[in-house]
Amino acid sequence: MTEKTMVKGNEAMAEAAIRAGCRLYFGYPITPQSEFTEYMAKRLPEVGGSFLQSESEVSAVNMIYGAACTGRRVLTSTSGPGFSLMQEGMSYIAGAELPSVFVNVVRGGPGLGDIQPAQSDYFQATKGGGHGDYHAVVLGPGTIQEAVELISDAFDIADRYRTPVIVLADGMLGQMMEPVIFGKYRDPDSLPDHSEWSLTGAGKREPHKVTSFNIDPYELEKMNMRYQAKYKEIIKNETRYETIRTEDADYLLVGFGTMGRILGSVIRQAREQGIKVGLFRPITLWPFPYDQLKKSAKGKKYVLDVEMSTGQMVEDVRLAVGDSLPVHFYGRTGGVVPNPEEVLQALRKHTEEAE
Amino acid sequence: MSVLTTFKPPKALSGKEFTYCPGCQHGTVHRLIAEVIDELQIQGRTIMVAPVGCSVFAYEFFDVDGTVAAHGRAPAVATGMKRALKDSVVFTYQGDGDLAAIGTAEIVHAANRGEKITTIFINNAIYGMTGGQMAPTTLLGMKTSTCPYGRTVENDGYPVHVCELLKETGGIAYLERTTVNTPQDIRKTRKALRKAFTAQLKGLGFSLVEVLSTCPTNWGMNPIEATEWLEENLKREFKVGLFVDKVGDDQ
Ligand SMILES: Cc1ncc(C[n+]2csc(CCOP(=O)(O)OP(=O)(O)O)c2C)c(N)n1
Ligand code: SF4
Ligand SMILES: [Mg+2]
Fold this sequence. Notes:
The complex is a heterodimer of chains A (355) and B (251). Chain A is an alpha/beta fold and 355 residues long.
């Protein structure tokens, strides 16, 4: 199907999961992602899948663990407070190397916060919200179209590396409507084969054991080294980003997700006002495109990182850019989305300082 | 002269040496579960979920596909498995801390949904693995390292009766509390386990067998004293018996 359909972000991402061959969903309602859960409740029975509303996000993530043990594609969606409850399970899933996809439609925090769009779960997603030396791959879509494509990629990455993948969306992406072109339906029987390790009942083969557990520190260290080797591969093969008009730019904007999209329109307006600015938009938040950003920033007069938070990704931006040029930050938080005019003001201010 | 084989370990046990203390009844229950798996010929399609507790290695002791869940989460993990693979036989093995404290929500909701899984619940009234702290099933007056003056109602409330709590949930197909102190008890427990797995095989709903079990090490007793203490104290608080049976006699 190549025609465009108008869909709400949450429903678009849910449909994308079904088209990617996901037939298992476990989740718990929470605003601003509930349409995702509801869509799965309606659609999964139609395609022979299984939907379950769990008693909590703690249970949901463990149901994901169990379902992923069987090698089947499985996904859950939630928002900040629910994702916090899932961190125990994320750690176990990373340790047991279980392919699985998590969508966090981020809202304002901390605590109960509010239900407006935010990016303040960046640390939790990218630095590992659970215990232990692990990473989940984190994808930050900027548009609904991109979210649809990244959901499909998320499953492929999860399968390829036996890893949890987080799609870090936000309330704006979840709630707005946009025309979208969906991908083809993938036959669940044609998906990557996990029969080498999955738990399906041993039949006539040797039993499989899948755990994050080893009581021997030397063995556990080896397991960790295996994870680290995998993370290296992921960094090498999966790092993604987008640049817009960076070559001739004097200044560089950095932002991801919804903020990255807004910065896209800021560039046009800024250039009309004579401020030659470009955009670097990380698409994988883990792995973060450090080297690529460093290259894009080279020769610029400053970097302005803009987020829907008080400044989380900016730490990675500073790591990438180092001391070679000033890194400024502008952000709004608590569910407030910076508008292009505010960003333009910040640009003008820093440009005057730089001149 | 032909050799008469009197002892043969069940096929569903892997043969790995148990990690349990002398006189601990975890091992007895493992053996009974394995015998039932053999009898029902379900080894090849069984998946087990071990808990966090002294039986954390149980997934190694059984010769079936297996994992170990986070503390208390085994019923949720088993739910995910069973929903993904409807023809599999999935069982969890859990202690009292795991099932009746940190995992209370998971067990109640798995039972209430009538999840087609089986749970074997080892109630030894104590946290064995972490060295003898108070469990939700610790008796009133009983001393543990975290209720050194004895458990009191004022501070800790009452021992949790899992079978009595669960029996009213609609999804239960089989529910029994047993012991493994005497050969008769062992026979009864084996029969209960067989029925519990049969409930799952027949798709009748959730099944659970609670086994009152000794922890000589953390009760500070020798194995004989421990079985006596279980008879006199644990059985008084937790009444042995059948709570729900939707399986019937025609197994
Ligand atoms: C989240 C979490 N909290 C605490 C622990 C520590 N812990 C390990 S086993 C255990 C208690 C186990 O007791 P029980 O379930 O009764 O099993 P038993 O050892 O008595 O068979 C505790 C508290 C843990 N592993 N994970
Ligand atoms: S500590 Fe208690 S429950 Fe654990 S193995 Fe020893 S006797 Fe058994
Ligand atoms: Mg115990």
